[in-house]
Amino acid sequence: MLRKLTIFCGIALASAFSPAPLAPGLRSARYQRAVTRHAVSPKMVWGDKDYLIAPSILSADFAKLGQEVDNVLAAGADVVHFDVMDNHYVPNLTIGPMVCKALRNHGVTAPIDVHLMVQPVDRIIGDFIDAGASYITFHPEASNHIDRTLAMIRDGGCKAGLVLNPATSLDYCKYVMDKIDIILLMSVNPGFGGQKFIPSVLEKAKEARKLIDASGYDIRLEIDGGVTVDNIKQVAECGVDMFVAGSAILKEPRTQDAYKTTIDKMRQQLASAKVAK
């Protein structure tokens, strides 16, 4: 009797702490999206540019979000970056999958890069997949099983990646290099926009680039926090090829021309960057 009770309790606990299974229709829809997305060539997924600029909508005017995103993409941005915060993993509360879906319904076709600063992380991944996310990254500290979380993202048809805080070790990436498409390095402490760049992350970027090159996998090295026209060249020379910039781009005057001026200056700096081999 005791053995039966123990087995029953074990099953109950496993059920309670396991992600709920997807409904057949939802599973099928996500699978079809995965097939479609994975059938696209890597060049189309990442674009044919050596460097990608990804403005963060955290700095946008949310009263005119659709127009803001239209303007910054028309100004030359490559990717739309979402900073998703839950007021639990980080001390701020921002946006969820409904905003992602609204931008897709608005007509945004550019890649949407979702950076999850939430804990637990698994339960919201499916919502962002359904909302139209292209890339989903998360902090390893927020996942009970990093390998499983990465698999959830890829199985949903999105690019998957790990986000490392300034003091978080690259060791988290070493044994999942075959399962990640992005390594995102935080160059500020996560939670708020407009912070100053932490210079010590530059050495970390060099180490991350060596790790990526040694792996032989097609992995983007992204950086988020304090990226400006003045430092983007130095960051690129450390091996970074995808740049999140919020307040450096999305600021007054909020016009397409102003955004284009900043993005063009960033591209000029990137064109002169000399990446060490």
From TrEMBL:
- Signal peptide interval: 1-16
Keywords tagged on the record: Isomerase, Metal-binding, Signal
GO molecular function list: D-ribulose-phosphate 3-epimerase activity; metal ion binding
Does Ubl conjugation show up as a keyword for this record? no
Q: Which CDD domains match?
A: RPE (cd00429)
**Could you say which EC number(s) this protein's record lists?**
5.1.3.1
Q: Which HAMAP family match?
A: RPE
Recorded protein name is ribulose-phosphate 3-epimerase
Q: Which organism is it from?
A: Guillardia theta (strain CCMP2712) (Cryptophyte)
